[in-house]
Task: inverse folding
C-alpha cells in the first residue's frame, strides 16, 4: 500500500495528537518523495524552532572534585581522597545545563540521519550545520527505553513532538553493511506498527474534528458469559473496542483494520474477512444493556485502501453494520470529508 508522503505526515500528526506542533513548524513537503527526506525536513524545521526559542535546560546534579568549595561539601569523601591539603574538595552541586536527555536524543538523531543512505544532499548539509550548534551536549548510545525517560511539562511540551519524530526515525533506521552508516526502512509496510498508527489516527481525528459525539475513546466491554466457577472467569480475554463514539442518544463502534487487502478471495469472489466481522458482531452483542443507544448501536469495519472503495450495509436486529474504506491515496481534503461522512 503506497501512501503519499504528505498524507503520512498528516496521519502521524493526528496519531501523535500533535496538530498544533505540525502547524507551528510549517513544513513544506510538496516536493519530497522519500520518507527519510520527510523526517529529515520535519526534524530540521522543528530543531530550528527549538534553537530560536532556546533549547530546554534543567538542573543536573554533579559530584566532582573542585577547587575550593562549590555547593555541598562532601567532607568524608574529600578526606578519603586526601585532597584537602591541595585546597581542593569533592562537592555535590547542581548545574543549570542544556546537556539533558531530550537534547542528547535530538543530537543523536540528527547525527544518525546524516549517516543514513539515500538522504537528500541539501537536507544532509542542513543537518550537519544544525549538529554543530549543539555545544556541550553529550553523544549517547540510542535505545527505545530512553524516550520513556524524557520528562515533559507545560514549558517544554513542544519537545513531545520532536521526541515522537526522533523515535520513529530511530525505529525505522537500521545499521547497514557499511560501518557507521544506516538504511531507512518504510515503516508503512510494517504490519505490526501501521495497524496501531491507523487506529490512533482515526480515534484522534474523530476526537478533534467532529462535534456530533461528545465522547470518543477505547471502550472495555464485559462478556455476557456467566462463569460457572471463579477460576473460569479469570481466563476470559479482555474485550476492548478500537474506537467508540457516544452522545446521549447514539453510539457507534468502529473497528479499524489496517491491512494490505480489504477483502479476501473465496472461489474468485470477494468476501469480507470473517474474523473481522465476528469481532465486530461480538462487540455489538456483548455491549447491549438497558439503554436505548446500546440496543441500536452502529458497528463499522473501517479499512484503508488506495484503489477500490467499499460501502457495504447490513442489519442485525436493531444494529446497523457497515463496512467502509478510506482511500489514503487521495487529497487530504477528501480523506477529511470521507471520515466525517462515515459517521
Result:
Amino acid at each position: 500500500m503506497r501512501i503519499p508522503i504528505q498524507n503520512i505526515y498528516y496521519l502521524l500528526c493526528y496519531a501523535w495528537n500533535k496538530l498544533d506542533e505540525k502547524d507551528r513548524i510549517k513544513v513544506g513537503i510538496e516536493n519530497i518523495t522519500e520518507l527519510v527526506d520527510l523526517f529529515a525536513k520535519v526534524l530540521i524545521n522543528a530543531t530550528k524552532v527549538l534553537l530560536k526559542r532556546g533549547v530546554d535546560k534543567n538542573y543536573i546534579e554533579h559530584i566532582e572534585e573542585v577547587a575550593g568549595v562549590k555547593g555541598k561539601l562532601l567532607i568524608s569523601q574529600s578526606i578519603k581522597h586526601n585532597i584537602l591539603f591541595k585546597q581542593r574538595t569533592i562537592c555535590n552541586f547542581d548545574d543549570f545545563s542544556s546537556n539533558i536527555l531530550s537534547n542528547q536524543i535530538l543530537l543523536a538523531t540528527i547525527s544518525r540521519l546524516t549517516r543514513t543512505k539515500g538522504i537528500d544532499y541539501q537536507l544532509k548539509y542542513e543537518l550537519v550545520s544544525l549538529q554543530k550548534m549543539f555545544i556541550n551536549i553529550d553523544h549517547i548510545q540510542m535505545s527505545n527505553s530512553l524516550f520513556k525517560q524524557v520528562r515533559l511539562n507545560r514549558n517544554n511540551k513542544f519537545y513531545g513532538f520532536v521526541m515522537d519524530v526522533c523515535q520513529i526515525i530511530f525505529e525505522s533506521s537500521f545499521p547497514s553493511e557499511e560501518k557507521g552508516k544506516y538504511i531507512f526502512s518504510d515503516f508503512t509496510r510494517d504490519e505490526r506498527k501501521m495497524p496501531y498508527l491507523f487506529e490512533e489516527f482515526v480515534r484522534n481525528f474523530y476526537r478533534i474534528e467532529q462535534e456530533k459525539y461528545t465522547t470518543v475513546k477505547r471502550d472495555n466491554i464485559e462478556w455476557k458469559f456467566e462463569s460457572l466457577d471463579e477460576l473460569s472467569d479469570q481466563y476470559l480475554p479482555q474485550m476492548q473496542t478500537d474506537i467508540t463514539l457516544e452522545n446521549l442518544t447514539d453510539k457507534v463502534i468502529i473497528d479499524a483494520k489496517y491491512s494490505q487487502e480489504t477483502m479476501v478471495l473465496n472461489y474468485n469472489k470477494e468476501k469480507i474477512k470473517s474474523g473481522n466481522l465476528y469481532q465486530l458482531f461480538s462487540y455489538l452483542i456483548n455491549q447491549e444493556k438497558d439503554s436505548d443507544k446500546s440496543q441500536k448501536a452502529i458497528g463499522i469495519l473501517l479499512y484503508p485502501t488506495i484503489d477500490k472503495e467499499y460501502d457495504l450495509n447490513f442489519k442485525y436486529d436493531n444494529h446497523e453494520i457497515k463496512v467502509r474504506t478510506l482511500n489514503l491515496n487521495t487529497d487530504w481534503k477528501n480523506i477529511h470529508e470521507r471520515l466525517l461522512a462515515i459517521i
User: Anything to note?
Assistant: The first strand starts at residue 58 and ends at 67. The chain has three domains: 5-57+99-189, 58-97, 195-342. Residues 73 and 91 are 5 Å apart (CA to CA).
